[in-house]
Amino acid sequence: MNSGLLEKYCKRIKKWSKLFLPQQNLRYYPPKFVLRDPVLEGVYAAVSSGLQVAVIVVNVSNLRELSLQLERNQLEEYKRELKKGFKKVFEQTTYSKDLLVVHDYYSDGLTLFVKINDDKQSVVHIENLLRIFMHKLEKWMLLKYPHFDLSFEIGYMFIEKEHYTTQEAIYNAQQQAVAMAEKRIQSRYIEMLLEIRDIIQKRDISLLAQPIIDLATKQIKAWEVLTRGPKNTSLESPLQLFSVARQANLIYDLELLVLEKAFQLIMKVGCCEEIFINFTPITLGNKRFIPALEKLLKRYEEIDPKKLILEVTERDSIEGLRFFHENIKELRRKGFRIAVDDTGAGYASLHTISEIMPDIIKIDRSVIQDIDTNSVKESMLKGLILIAKETGSLVVAEGIEKEAEAEVLSRNQVDLAQGYYYARPGTLEKERVAF
């Protein structure tokens, strides 16, 4: 075939392909691996609308053992039924609306793409989702296949699109999730485990700060400390950093490092306002937390516990944490105040509020977003304010991005607010001067 004829056929193929493939698929062709259209379309649409997308890999770890018990055709049929079951079980959970697509990249299991509307507590969201999903899956397996004792490996990773095309971002996240699930020797899991340990050992994190505004005076009342990993690395994003730390069982070590870094920042800047710091119940309920905190307070004697508010991420369950309530009481005795974060994002927040009677209730941005055009959301806000009055708690509204939203908060006499409308996260020094 001569070059002219070849070029003619190539143009014709390209022309016809546009009838079947979305434009964003063509932009990233050829891919590193074959993606069905729904995967790229779903992820592209979710990311473009500002949502986070997590890649969850669920593998059957002992499928090879099962293959010894079945004929080849029986095994293939069993795997097909298993994949159908995975999707069916997920659709029965409260997170079914978040499922973008299920894809069988690997015959040993499935890859699920899940959208998340809250980038701040996405790690906890995924953990809760997996806990519910696996519980239902195990029950389904027991009923469907009582003679088979299957075990599963799970790993997840968030799609980080900032420095990649959509195609590359999906590939990278999926490969990392596979490694986290399989936890193979010399795998990407081991690399990430060593990486997160190295970050903690070298204390290689940085802190940003976002102001919290007193709506009555329009002055900065406090700052929320936000964490970033090493610059220009895969773990710079707090989503990646905390998800890897959590799966590597190093979340306590990472959060304790954040606390000490916050102490250092307060002393360096001479910050006089209050400081909010996020903690999972895993850390606050750790029996080592209070002794470690006491050592830090002795080392940084100028730190006033009365200026510090420890935020409890409400989407993490406090059930079964033996030392949690005891630690909360001790923290209060020392002068620290307790806040419940993300109130309104789920039922768990109301339970946590009733359990610990927080000093501050932070209302999730899902309630605040577009509250100026949604009367139901304003009614929810009023209800949460009534709860705060009953518990004697201050109210902080998160995620304000528009003046109209801020006006609704003022009208309802919300105490404090934070969000991009007031200032984006930045270094504490710069924000103190610029705001």
From TrEMBL:
Species, as recorded: Metabacillus herbersteinensis
Upper classification of the organism: Bacteria, Bacillati, Bacillota, Bacilli, Bacillales
CDD domains per UniProt: EAL
Protein name according to UniProt: EAL domain-containing protein
Pfam families linked to this entry: EAL
EAL domain span: 189-435
